[in-house]
Amino acid sequence: MQKNYENQQLDAAIRHFVYTFFAGEARPPSTQEAATQLGLSVAGVEAAFERLAEEHHLVLAPGTHTIWMAHPFSGLPTNYSTRIGSQTYWANCAWDVFGIAAILGKNATADIPCGCGVCNRQIVLEINPDERIESNWLVHFVVPAAQFWDRIGYT
Q1: What Cα–Cα distance (Å) separates residue 130 from each residue in 20, 38, 86, 125?
Q2: Rounded CA gap, 123 and 17, in Å?
Q3: Burial tier of 53 (Cβ tally within 10 Å: 0-12, 13-18, 19+)
Q4: Interval 139-152: pLDDT, tens
Q5: Could you tell me which residues are beta bridge partners of residue 80?
Q6: pLDDT in tens, 50-67
């Protein structure tokens, strides 16, 4: 679908709002919250959310206009989390716990529920976006990256 200039500007503003809201609140905004904050109708926000979802900027919960994912943020609690100060952000996968720290540019603690393949302990990492993490760990992705969007909510 070809976007017109007004839709491009609107979608960019809404996308910025969504990420700013996630960063501050550790949850996605509702369509009503976005509409109120941006002076738009709920229907206008819903249409923008749909366009953003079509372009893979957002993932909406099936059959709704509720934001499920705005990578690396998850709109729903998951087994993957990143703590920054007293705030907990949900991530979509182990990879995204790093993305949250990176996107917010803050030191964080990442909880990755998978166990170490050798000792079976849960992995908890202290992340500093200014430092490199030295490790000999391996990550196994069951689905090839080229297929992630085929079933993004279940990859």
Answers
A1: 21, 34, 21, 14
A2: 32
A3: middle
A4: 667 778 788 777 77
A5: 91
A6: 999 999 999 999 999 999
Q: How many CA atoms lie within 13 A of 122 on its CB side?
A: 9
Contact between 75 and 27 (Cβ < 8 Å): yes
pTM: 0.82
Instruction: Return the number of other C-beta atoms located less than 10 Å from residue 59's C-beta.
Output: 19
For residue range 2-23, list pLDDT tens digits in order: 568 889 999 999 999 999 999 9
Three-state secondary structure readout of the chain: CCCCHHHHHHHHHHHHHHHHHHHHHCCCCCHHHHHHHHCCCHHHHHHHHHHHHHCCCCEECCCCCCEEEECCEECCCCCEEEEECCEEEEECCHHHHHHHHHHHCCCEEEEEEEECCCCCCEEEEEECCCCCCCCCCCCCCCCCHHHHHHHHHHC
Q: Is-cis flag, bond preceding 72, omega within 30?
A: yes
